[in-house]
Amino acid sequence: MGNLAPHRVVNDHNDDDMTEDEFYMQKIQELVNEKMKQFAREDQECYKLKIKKKKLGKKVIPTEVVSNEVTERLKEFITNDMNGYDMQLVIQKVLYSSDVSRCQNRLNMPFKQLETHDFLTDDEIRMVEEEEGPGVKVRLVGPNLRMYEEPIWLKTWKMSSTKNYVFKTNWSNFVDANKAYLKAETNIQVWSFRIDEQLCFAIACVERPDVEDDVARGMDPS
């Protein structure tokens, strides 16, 4: 009895005949390749989704404006003790290390975080916008409810992706004079007001990260 020749089938991809086993092995390989491509597409989509979620996670979530004993005390001091008027909340922000760094010597107040833009006159806007100009000279009340003696200068600072107001010139001296209050990660509010039309600002520390530590050590956090 002669040897049975392997059954041959027609290969759809070329003119050569192949055995049935070879044909099915090719089909299996094609299915495997297709499945691998599908897995690669799914991995790519999963990677894109992770990147998107990561970027969304970096968005700054607006914080609720704090109103407490500190802000009420400040308002009473400005209006009653200093005869100030037109008091407006300009910004609430957490201090970064750069805000209290002596070498930086400036407080950064990004436009996109401002609570109001209507605290300057037209002339003051022109002065803070002048590139070569010094800005507007203002007076600043510290968290200790004392008017700082040295003048501070308000100026706009344009960056590639944003625009900011900054307190500069003598800012680092102001921080030193209020170092018990102005520390990195402290949540502050900057208020504008006027005395005899003179533009002034006040800084209130509405949330201080070191208060709990001070209380635990038996220290007065005020």
Description of the structure:
GO terms for molecular function: DNA binding. This is B3 domain-containing protein, DNA-binding pseudobarrel domain protein. Pfam families: At2g31720-like. Keywords: DNA-binding, Nucleus, Transcription, Transcription regulation. It comes from Artemisia annua (Sweet wormwood). This protein is α+β, with helices and mostly antiparallel strands and 222 residues long. It has 2 domains: 8-57; 69-216, Beta Barrel (At1g16640 B3 domain). The chain is built from 5 helices and 9 strands. A 7-stranded mixed sheet has the order 3-8-9-5-6-7-4. It has a two-stranded antiparallel sheet with strand order 1-2. A hairpin with a 4-residue loop joins strand 6 and strand 7. The longest helix is centred in the N-terminal third of the chain and has 38 residues, at 20-57. Mean pLDDT is 82; it is low at 55-61 and 212-222.
Summary tags:
alpha+beta; At1g16640 B3 domain; 2 domains; seven-stranded mixed beta sheet; disordered C terminus; DNA-bd_pseudobarrel_sf; transcription regulation
Task: Give the integer mean of the pLDDT values.
Answer: 82
SS field, number of helical segments: 5
What is the CATH topology assignment of the largest domain? At1g16640 B3 domain
Stretches with pLDDT under 50, minimum 5 residues: 55-61, 212-222
What overall form do the CA principal axes indicate?
Answer: elongated
What's the CATH H-level superfamily name of the largest domain? Answer: DNA-binding pseudobarrel domain
Query: What percent of residues are in strands?
Result: 25-35%
Estimate the helix proportion, in percent.
25-40%
Give the class from helix and strand content and strand pairing.
alpha+beta
Number of strands: 9
C-alpha termini separation = 108 Å
Radius of gyration: 33 Å
Structurally, the number of domains stands at: 2
Major sheet: size, sense and barrel closure?
7 strands, mixed
